[in-house]
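Curious: why these numbers?
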Amino acid sequence: MESVSNNQAVGAVGRMIDQTKGLSVEGLLLVCQSRMSDIDSDVKRRLQMQQDRGNLQAKISDTLAKLKGVTGGEIKDSADTVNALAAELDQEIALAEKTGDTATADSLRAAKGKLTEDLHGGVDGKCSKDDIESVKQSLDSAVKSCGTNSELEMIDIQQLMSKRAQLLQLTTSILNKVDESAMTACKNI
């Protein structure tokens, strides 16, 4: 395992040398520092998105739990409940869009549309059991989509952390070479 990471570090050193020919050691270290800073800020941003996505998933689950109490029937009797759930869905849609999760946002929009269509101008003024089940399915789909996107994002974060580790190993290698050169120079004096 260690030889694999050393080989990766050697490859990274080679690529870095090709990209930074003519730079001094200080220049190389500044490039490493700059790249490390970029990776760190990207990881921080993605971790915040992960946290937001986790909050979104919890909110959708809460909305789904509230909806389980609605069984269908006269929607006018539960208009306040439906309006409150629709307002929650609006917040969840905004959070899904903030995290860039368009599939989840689309599922939430579909759920909201199904939930509110009979309340605002529907033919019979009722929300049937099938309508409620359809909304629940849309919310289940949103929870699953959110979870899937969260897992994919974690893979990306792991790849960034791997790049960060390689860059750190590269920086350590550069510093070790500088130290070896200085020690050799001291011995030759």
About this structure: The chain has a mean pLDDT of 80. The CA atoms of residues 40 and 164 lie 8 Å apart. The radius of gyration is 27 Å. Strands lie at 73-74, 126-127.
